[in-house]
Amino acid sequence: MEKLLRCRDFGTDCDFEACGETAEEALTTAVDHARAVHGSKDISDKDRKRVRAAVQDAFCVSKGGYNPGGGGFL
User: Fold this and answer.
1) Is the C-alpha dihedral spanning 63, 64, 68, 73 positive or negative?
2) HEC readout, the chain
3) Contact (Cβ atoms closer than 8 angstroms) between residue 67 and residue 15
4) Is the dihedral of CA 36, 41, 44, 46 positive or negative?
5) Are 18 and 31 in contact (CB under 8 A)?
6) pLDDT digits (tens, 9 = 90+) for 2-29
7) Which of 18, 21, 23, 24 has its CA 20 to 30 A from that of 43?
8) Whole-angstrom distance, CA of residue 53 vs CA of residue 17
9) Domain boundaries, the chain
10) At residue 67, what are phi and psi to the nearest 5 degrees?
11) 25-57, pLDDT tens digit by residue?
């Protein structure tokens, strides 16, 4: 089963979803998105742990990043 992270789960008004075969793959996609779109610079170990804890099992439509609210694949 794939792993999913949703940007919205972290208090943002953002529909981005990061999906991967593993939690690490989804986390990498989510961090790349946070840097590129939200201007996040450094992701602390504490924040990585919080994000990793939010990983959910899912059946993803596609791997990588997707913004279902508009913009499609990122």
Assistant:
1) negative
2) CEEEEEHHHHCCCCCCEEEECCHHHHHHHHHHHHHHHHCCCCCCHHHHHHHHHCCEEECCCCCEEEECCCCEEC
3) yes
4) negative
5) no
6) 999 999 988 889 999 999 999 999 999 9
7) 21
8) 15
9) 2-73
10) -120, 90
11) 999 999 899 889 988 888 788 888 888 899 999
Residue corresponding to tokens 């170990």: 45
Tokens of 55: 């990983």
**Within a 10 A sphere around the Cβ of 52, how many other Cβ atoms?**
15
